[in-house]
TrEMBL record:
<dbReference type="Pfam" id="PF04229">
    <property type="entry name" value="GrpB"/>
</dbReference>
<dbReference type="InterPro" id="IPR043519">
    <property type="entry name" value="NT_sf"/>
</dbReference>
<protein>
    <submittedName>
        <fullName>GrpB family protein</fullName>
    </submittedName>
</protein>
<dbReference type="InterPro" id="IPR007344">
    <property type="entry name" value="GrpB/CoaE"/>
</dbReference>
Amino acid sequence: MPKDFSPDLVVVGFDPAWTVRGKTLTTDMYDLLKPLALHVEHIGSTAVPGMAAKPVFDLQAGVRDLQEAQHAFAPLLADRGFELTPYRQDHVPAGSDDDPARWTKRLWTRRGHREPDVNFHVRVAGSPNERLALLFRDWLRAHPAAVPAYARFKQVLAGAVPDLATYADVKDPVVDLVIAVAEPWARATGWRVADTLTPRTSAQHT
């Protein structure tokens, strides 16, 4: 993660209002960006009941082409207070020999606006990084007993590191551990990306 990324490290207790606000935000963003946005989902810690989080909503859009989406989305998002960041690459899980080119993205952020703070991740529909974000969220939703431990880890980490870049670097291997457990769960339960997408979209993929 770039060292000039926002250093906001405040991790707070779960707010039940995040669930409702996340639904509103995803609906608004989908309506703004369709049809190039095939779907928009609420991801990240604010999307997991009971999870402590930075009070910033993570949203994810699936698109067919990143360059096309960047060109089309830029003016629309700028009008909503978003700025395009230089961050173009997601972390590839440890032990994976996948091509990093399959883990590219675009990331817009909004801070200090009249509307909530948001990280807006745009990923290729069907890509491994799109899938990982949804699997991570859904595994934690399905395993509430794991939420307090992960929340506590984030709170302690936020108080121990100097910036968000270091926070992300330390947190990534822990996310890898969760995914290592989540993958067998996905196979055992038949979990698929297509089944977890918000019903407002007809885009279906695995």
